[in-house]
Amino acid sequence: MDYADDKYTKREIEDIKIVLRVLFLFIPVPLYWSLYDQQGSRWTFQASRMDGDLGGFVLKPDQLQVINPILVMILIPVFDRVIYPFLAKCNIMKKPLQRMVVGGTFVAIAFIVSGIVELQLEKTYPPKL
């Protein structure tokens, strides 16, 4: 980009570099949303092939759709009032971008675990004809 200084001002070149850095952050967004949208279909289907027994409570596959919004409503204040201030005191994850990276990492781990669970479930399927 620096070779374009004969056509563009230094400010324009710097602005383009900044835009490209921001666009780089959006590369994983379509992948995330394509996997996230599977919660309503594929993950529910996966849950229907599991027993859902959590000790004294049985979680049915269609109930999984309700858990996400409930957890969001509960955990946002917990993170905002308890976890993030505690981490800030420890000089960990002070910036929103750092929090996004950690959250994205946990999401990636959750999708990987879901894939591993599916591979284990496939071993229990009846053989195809």
UniProtKB/TrEMBL annotation:
- What highest taxon heads this organism's lineage? Eukaryota
For this UniProt record, give its keywords in alphabetical order, as a comma-separated list.
Membrane, Peptide transport, Protein transport, Transmembrane, Transmembrane helix, Transport
Q: Does Translocase count among this protein's keywords?
A: no
Please list every transmembrane segment annotated in the UniProt record, as residue ranges: 18-36, 66-88, 100-121
Matching InterPro entries:
POT_fam
What GO CC terms are in its UniProt record? membrane
Quick one: signal sequence residues?
none
Q: Which GO terms describe its biological process?
A: peptide transport
Location(s) in or outside the cell: Membrane
Instruction: Tell me the GO molecular function terms.
Output: transmembrane transporter activity
Establish whether keyword Chloroplast is in the entry.
Answer: no
Pfam entry (one): PTR2
Q: How does it sit in the membrane?
A: Multi-pass membrane protein
Principal localisation: membrane
Check the record and name the PANTHER family matching this protein.
Answer: OLIGOPEPTIDE TRANSPORTER-RELATED (PTHR11654)
Protein name as it appears in the record: Uncharacterized protein
What's the source species for this entry?
A: Allacma fusca
